[in-house]
Design goal:
Elements lengths: L8 E6 L7 E8 L2 E6 L15 E4 L15 E3 L5 E4 L2 H11 L5 H6 L2 H33 L2 H16 L3 E3 L4 H19 L7 E7 L17 E3 L4 E5 H7 L2 H17 L1 H20 L3 H5 L1 H7 L4 H17 L5 H16 L3 H13 L6 H19 L1
Parallel strand pairs: 8-10
Antiparallel strand pairs: 1-2, 1-6, 2-3, 3-4, 5-6, 7-8, 9-10
Helix pairs in contact: 3-8, 4-10, 5-7, 5-11, 7-11, 7-12, 11-14, 12-13, 12-14
Length: 379
């Protein structure tokens, strides 16, 4: 059986005009909170004890119960009450003023705190997985394409100064690959395809003295906002197959068509904005946006969408999706079989190119299934 709390509770009264603390007894009479000097505790720091003062209960800001900390009730007019005994105050307040809320009850329980933390983590994870991409799509739909173009140009200039250098492929070979891909795009989309531009670069050597020219980028292809796609010499030299290049570039065209680069940057910006609210200095993130864009990977859903574009392009061009299976095999061989510096660079480059792609096994299965469907349709 719960004990009945006394009708009065001891506290210290501050009138809000001086720093003097008066020992008082606090009671509730109807809708009023009555504060009476407690003569048994002395006169405090003042000479003249205050008479009984009544405050409307509805106007009092009551403190929440907690495991630690003082209980201070803010009274109308700037006065306040500080409990002399927190436990006695809590028992008195529950019986005579108000009961604890569900939040207060949960705060007193480790189980409640852990449950709230689990719910918070689940909500944040759900927002990151589904809410954030949806928000990014909505924002990107309002962003003019000129913004993508400007950001893509700035990112390419940043890459030119750090990760890549001028291509060594003959200009005629570059134009041949462009024409080959243009033909595949027209077959897929007619004249209404997404705007694109294909640039060729070679990975900048990590060590200028390295005669092998090993680079961190290695065999790679990536799309930038605004329609610019970059194909490295190392990838062209690795695959030596036009049909594979069509499949790889079709994947990058999928990123261009869906504006994945801008969507990803918006998602990172939302996270950065949330961080700036907590930690400040959001301007530094905007200044480094090109570097962030160049180094981050796409989500797996975005990669699946890009693979879908690659499949459409290969089908229209009469290319079997099995060429992408062959590409994955070459990539795996480059990652696992090479021991020299050049091979390590190739492996690292492919790791960057597919940093957040779905697992190879999943993608290979999809391309194999598409090849079977394409062959069945031809029968």
């Amino acid at each position: 059986m719960q004990e009945t709390a006394p009708a009065a509770v001891r506290a210290h009264f501050f009138d809000g005009r001086t720093s003097r603390a008066w020992p008082v007894q606090v009671t509730v009479a109807g809708a009023g909170l009555v504060v009476t000097h407690d003569a048994s505790q002395g006169r405090g720091e003042g000479d003249v004890a205050p008479g009984p003062v009544t405050f409307p209960v509805a106007g009092v800001q009551w403190p929440e119960r907690s495991r630690h900390g003082a209980r201070i009730a803010q009274l109308p007019g700037g006065a306040s009450l500080q409990a002399a005994d927190a436990a006695a105050w809590d028992a008195w307040a529950v019986q005579h003023v108000r009961r604890d809320s569900l939040v207060v009850h949960a705060q007193q329980s480790w189980r409640g705190v852990l449950a709230a933390l689990a719910v918070l983590v689940a909500v944040l994870a759900g927002f990151y997985a589904w809410g954030l991409p949806a928000v990014a799509r909505g924002i990107v739909a309002l962003v003019p394409p000129q913004v993508d173009l400007a950001l893509g140009e700035k990112t390419l200039r940043s890459l030119d100064g750090h990760l890549v250098e001028r291509s060594r492929l003959p200009p005629a070979e570059q134009e041949r690959i462009r024409a080959l891909f243009q033909k595949a795009v027209v077959r897929t989309h007619g004249t209404g395809g997404p705007a694109w531009r294909l640039e060729f670069r070679r990975g900048r050597p990590d060590d200028p003295q390295d005669k092998a020219g090993t680079s961190a980028l290695g065999p790679n292809a990536f799309a930038l906002p605004g329609g610019t796609m970059v194909l490295t010499d190392e990838l062209v030299e690795l695959v030596k197959d036009d049909e594979v290049l069509i499949g790889v570039l079709g994947h990058e065209l999928g990123h261009v068509r869906q504006r994945h680069g801008m969507r990803q940057l918006v998602q990172v910006s939302v996270i950065g904005a949330a961080g700036s609210i907590l930690f400040g200095d959001y301007g530094s993130f905007l200044a480094t946006a090109p570097v962030v864009l160049a180094s981050m990977g796409y989500s797996r859903d975005a990669e699946r969408e890009a693979d879908g574009e690659s499949l459409r392009l290969m089908k229209a061009a009469g290319v079997s999706p099995l060429v992408m299976v062959r590409f994955f095999e070459m990539a795996r061989s480059s990652r696992n079989g090479g021991k020299d510096g050049a091979s390590r660079g190739a492996a690292d480059g492919l790791g960057i190119a597919f940093s957040s792609h779905p697992h190879d096994a999943e993608r290979i299965a999809r391309f194999r299934q598409a090849a079977r469907g394409q062959e069945a349709g031809d029968d």
